[in-house]
Amino acid sequence: MNSLIQGAFRNKAAMILIVIMVLAMGALSYSKLPMEFLPEADNPQVTVSVIGPGYDASSMDQKVTGPLEQALSGIKGKTNVFSSSGDGYSQVNLNFDSDTNMKDAKLEVERAVSSVKLPDNVSPPYVVQLNTSMIPISFVTLTFAEGVSDAQKEMLERQILDEFKAIDGVGSVQLSGKSLPRASIVPDVAKLSEKGLPLQSLYGVLQGRAASATVGESVLDGQAVSLNVSASVQDEQTLRSLPVAPGVTLGEVAKVALSDTKESLFRIDGKDALQFVISKGANSNAVNVGKAVNKIVDEHNEAKGPVELKVILSTSEQVVHSVNSMMREVLLGALFATIVILLFMRNIRATLVTIVSIPLSLAMTLYLLDLSGITLNILTLGGVAVAVGRLVDDSIVVIENIFRRLQKEKFSQQLIIDATREVASAITASTLTTIAVFLPMSLLRGGLQAFLLPFALTMTYSLLSSLVVALTLVPLMSAGVLRNSSIKEHHPSKRFVRFLEKCLRFKLLPITGAVVLLAASVGTYASMPKGAIDSSNAENVNVTLDYPADTPIADVLENGSRLERALMSREDVEWVAMSNGNSADSAQYGSVLSPTQVTYMLKIRPGEDAEKVMADVKAEAAAYPGAELNTSAGDFMSSGSSTQVIIDITGNNAEQIALTAEQVAAKIQPIKDVLKVESNQQVKKTVYTLEVNPAEAKAEEIAMQLQGMLNPIPAGSMTVDGQSIPVWIEPVLKPKSESELSGITVMTESGPEPVSNVAKWAKAEQSTTFFHKDGNSYIRVTASVEPTQLSKVGSEIDKQLKDVSLPEGVKLNVGGASADQSADMMSLFMMMIVSVGVVYLIMVFTFKTLKAPLAIISSIFFVPIGAVLGLLLTGITPDFTAIFGVVMLIGIVVTNAIVLIDRVKHNEERMTIREALLEAAGTRMRPILMTAIATVGAMLPLVFGSSESGSIVSQSLAVVVIGGLIVSTLLTLVIVPCLYELLYFRKSSLQRKLAAQSVQEAAAQ
Question: SUPFAM superfamilies, alphabetically (predicted)?
């Protein structure tokens, strides 16, 4: 350390140049660092989604989900496999352990599903592995002017889609609400019968009618030419005139019409629209992508063409807001720390010297973040916000020691060097211990580690930078600005020294009091409810209108439109977006929904009360009988299940599983703060199954006949206005009653007969969704919980489930938010224990003894007292971030104890232990209070500011850090000296006896 300090004095010009370079590199790094909301972190899950329009849940389960599960059974690294099959969709979720390389896992899953043979008219399997970099940047709607043809619409949407995809940094562009024009052929059974034609004669009506081929070359008029054959059906009239039999055209036996269906429904303010969801690529700048999207939107709107684009939600703007608000809190924290130093030092020059470490440390931190490939997000900026108070700690100790020496000694450069060297080992050790707290990050679970590592690196870079500044630039500047400065002498507090002397005489009393307070705080914390991290965003509100699966889609859309009009009529709502159905693009990103669910996104006008909007919408539930109307605060980070406790019931006997699920639901429902209990078996649908007598007919042949009569059949395609559209033969039969269903005529070996002669329809109630876990059927019971009472409710659910009598082979598995929260907190507790061990090891290396570090480590155990007291006084519910605050405090609070004990060790060379403790406590009380109050002042903006959604740097963390630091600092000044003397009790007692004897002998003489 001595060579580093003296090196700064020998190379003053180089130091000036280094300072300028560091500031420049920091500014440059800030301008080029990619901005995003959260650091990139892989979700340890791969999702396989398939869309099958027209297939019911049972068919999707048997023909799609089953084969997929079988193909995925050999995937390495998976912990479990969950699947769900519903009307028109199938989804398989594979969960992996935290050590799995998710990119390799996705490739393996893609290879496995590519070999699965799926039924006709079913989409290919879409495999997606989500991570935080795939958070959507912009939601853009596209509406067309009146009179735009379908072909023009397709051309324009493709053009705009390509423009968005061409943006530098875009990862993906998802499109929903696309038009799917089709030509429908509706057979007229009576006319077909009159002409003596079977239905099958229509199936090949387009076969060979359209072609485009080269048939050869020839020489005409002395010139070589190519000969082609071309034909296409381009309008309804041509389609109607196609022959189906000699002398019979299609128009004579069927109706032909062009229709404009949609893959999925999307509307904005009551108008049909397309929606583009634009996500950024990995390591690209979210803000730049958002600006490029806005530029394209503005260009199209200014051109006043046939399209109108509108950015309804831009998360890139939220990123800018988050970064700016966090940066504002960093600057406010720096200002508060400066004020604290000025009040203590009462010297403007010394204050300026001290706070120079803030901009320099921040500049170096930004440069190191850039070199490490870490983005600028709410976690890295949160690390800076938390570290601001600590950035001046080392400089405070150095400048205070220089001040103290100048009060009694004449100014000289050597005095500055000696004063800095005197505290160099103490501030180095304290900085290393703070950094060491974050070393055990490797013990955390994969996703948690990915989130906290950028935070930890930011803290590490900041503190190391501040240490270098404190040991080089601070003494160098002090030698310049304090040369002719008048230094007011500071005397240690005599009252405090007398108070500490009494505590040392009766040391067991304060130690016992501290232990009692610790036990009380731990007990209080154990009884406090632990909540989920709040991730609500009141700028938007999500609404869902959910109907039973057997509700006709037409009824769902009619009532959905009625609710849409009601929402649009509200003055506190800026716009309403309505969507229904599934699209191929959505499925590619693992999003599949029930076709009987209508979802809405509401933009709340600035200044309006989102809670009132949600309450008013919920009050309308009675106007939609049979439907479930739900609302929630909208947030692009929310998962929708952040406060749900999930209980999975598995086993081999379906009846036993169902009975157990009923018992579980009955046990959970009465628990206080359980808002709603649902089961995936509650919603059922009427299913008619044709049970064929094998002796009278072939079931496979009848199934094929019924599929042809009851479902649309593809007949080919035609070209309209340059756009290729499919041609479908609509179902001949549309039975409206059970008797009509039984009267359907089918061909058998003995000729045409009513289906009721060879089979019978069996009516049954079946689940609308089929769930599998690791290939076996299971029932999931989901309890929605009040967010602030998550831990209490989770514990009560565990307690109630112990009373459920489980049949042989039936098992319960509790998961969801409560289990995740417990696992995360357990990971942090493990990290805390390892951190204490690492800190102790560093202290042993520093002081070269086992006893003194024990006294320093004891300061950690006072942290819970202040942390719990802070939570109680503020009424804030502790969550995961509060525990993380305690982990941070381990590194922060030992700093004060190190500075104190370092002084004690120096004093022991010429004093007794008690004298050394009293002198050190009196001398070091001022810098200890200064560093603690500066850190508290820097954290205050986080308490009174608004924490960002999804951030670990929350109000809860700030309250825990402030409360724990205040109490631990006060107790450190009293309890640590008492424990230190207790550890050296015999030596101290002997010293006092010898000192007393010396006094007596001197008095006798």
Answer: Multidrug efflux transporter AcrB pore domain, PN1, PN2, PC1 and PC2 subdomains, Multidrug efflux transporter AcrB transmembrane domain
